[in-house]
Design goal:
By secondary structure, the protein is mainly alpha-helical. It is built from 7 helices and no strands. The protein starts with 19 loop residues before the first helix and ends in a 9-residue tail after the last helix.
């Protein structure tokens, strides 16, 4: 997904097996990598009615959530690695969120709970998909409009397109990475 071709663990091809923890770490690193956000922001027309600070902030949230969705969607329910990967990914995101919350409080004096913000935004997206069951099989039809709404730009075509693009590109990158990676066998004691 990184059009700049910056090599990251998720874009680097390797034949070696990795652990579930390393896979989760790579996916969490990809989820918070801001290269894609900058590219999407640079693609916005200069003349627009969007609050670019809000759009960039919401793109970061959407990317984190999209990686989580991709894990859930592209790994088979019967895959013994799915539950440990999902749990480890979200624990890493929780830890990163705590660091963001602490840094925000230290620099601004304002206390936030970034992980709670992620959970609330997830609830917003899921609720909209449930409100539109005919579109639930094609979540991209829901994600763009909801993204525009959380950016306080409901119906804005640039916001809808930007949110849809982040969602689809992130899902595609994670799907490709999950297909390319080989996991070490899990040993259960």
């Amino acid at each position: 997904m990184n059009a700049s071709k910056k090599e990251t663990p998720i874009t680097k091809q390797t034949d070696e097996k990795i652990s579930v923890e390393q896979l989760a770490r790579n996916l969490a690193g990809f989820a918070i990598d801001r290269t894609d956000l900058g590219e999407l922001m640079a693609a916005l027309p200069r003349e627009n009615k969007l609050n670019v600070t809000t759009v960039e902030y919401e793109l970061g949230i959407l990317k984190i959530l999209s990686v989580g969705w991709a894990i859930a969607f592209y790994m088979a329910a019967s895959d013994k690695n799915k539950a440990p990967l999902t749990e480890t990914y979200w624990e890493m995101i929780r830890e990163i969120s705590q660091n963001i919350s602490t840094l925000t409080e230290t620099t601004t004096g304002t206390r936030i709970d970034y992980f709670n913000i992620l959970k609330e935004r997830l609830e917003t997206y899921v609720s909209r998909m449930q409100d539109n069951p005919d579109q639930a099989s094609e979540p991209t039809a829901v994600m763009g409009p909801v993204f525009a709404q959380v950016c306080n730009s409901p119906g804005d075509p640039m916001a809808i397109l930007t949110g849809t693009k982040m969602f689809t590109l992130t899902l595609g990158a994670v799907k490709e990475y999950l297909a390319a990676v080989t996991l070490e066998d899990i040993t259960i004691h």
